[in-house]
Amino acid sequence: MAYIWHLEKQRDHKEGYYIGKEVSEDDPQWDEPFNGPNRWPSPDVLPGWRETMENYHQEALKVCKAIARILAVALNLDADYFDTPEMLGKPIANLRLLHYEGKSDPSKGIYACGAHTDYGMMTLLATDSVMGLQICRDETMKPQKWEYVPSIKGAFMVNLGDMMERWSNGFFKSLLHRVLGNGQERFSIAFFVEPNHDCLVECLPTCMSENNPPKYPVIKCSTYLSQRYKKTHADLSIYEKQT
Ligand SMILES: O=C(O)CCC(=O)C(=O)O
Ligand SMILES: [Fe+2]
């Protein structure tokens, strides 16, 4: 079968290697949505790489759980509010190793990574020193104002996503961001964290009142994520498949 792709829209100028939580076939989590085995390069080609990545995955998750405690305190919840088996007990966590190259041209719609908000609960981002990430504090402004986010050596950036905005009834904002390429190669590592697939994302008790009722209906984490994936990949319909 051959595929003929008719490109009608600019694509992001990036490539990525995605690593999910490593779940083996005998693990009860094997059948859960969004889980599966990772594909690892042979240790002959990259000795020790799998161990390094698995270690990064585990440590990044610990950092995100610590951040979740800070978020809980900021929301006047108990610090361990998100630490329950139903929430961050068996989180969905994905590591994305990103590589960008080329020069972006916003006037032609060419980006290293186009404007978007992250879907989930939070993203822990490590970047190299090549500037590229931009944020837009107010999406409604015309024209939109984009600001570079300087990378700080040894520091992570934390981005709260749409699920956190929904969960907190809009208290936390999921910020619009994009990446511009300046012709230099750029590498970044994004780590996306969501609660358990069956966690009910329901307005947090401290984020609603009589004057501020819940703005979003309750939704199961997996349903929410599936909806978001589907929307993102709906763009694939612009390609025509031929046999
Ligand atoms: O590479 C970056 O700095 C940002 C990546 C990003 O926003 C994403 O993958 O969602
Ligand atoms: Fe992002």
Automatic annotation (TrEMBL):
Keyword Acyltransferase: no
Keyword Lipid biosynthesis among record annotations: no
The Fe2OG dioxygenase domain, residue ranges: 91-195
Pfam families the record matches: 2OG-FeII_Oxy (PF03171)
GO molecular-function term, one example from the UniProt record: dioxygenase activity
Top-level taxon in the UniProt lineage: Eukaryota
InterPro entries: IPNS-like_FE2OG_OXY (IPR044861), IPNS-like_sf (IPR027443), Oxoglu/Fe-dep_dioxygenase_dom (IPR005123)
SUPFAM superfamilies (alphabetical): Clavaminate synthase-like
UniProt keyword terms in alphabetical order: Iron, Metal-binding, Oxidoreductase
PANTHER family reported in the protein's UniProt record: 2-OXOGLUTARATE (2OG) AND FE(II)-DEPENDENT OXYGENASE SUPERFAMILY PROTEIN, OXIDOREDUCTASE, 2OG-FE II OXYGENASE FAMILY PROTEIN
Family, as annotated: Belongs to the iron/ascorbate-dependent oxidoreductase family.
Protein's name according to its UniProt entry: Fe2OG dioxygenase domain-containing protein
The organism's taxonomic lineage, starting at the top: Eukaryota, Viridiplantae, Streptophyta, Embryophyta, Tracheophyta
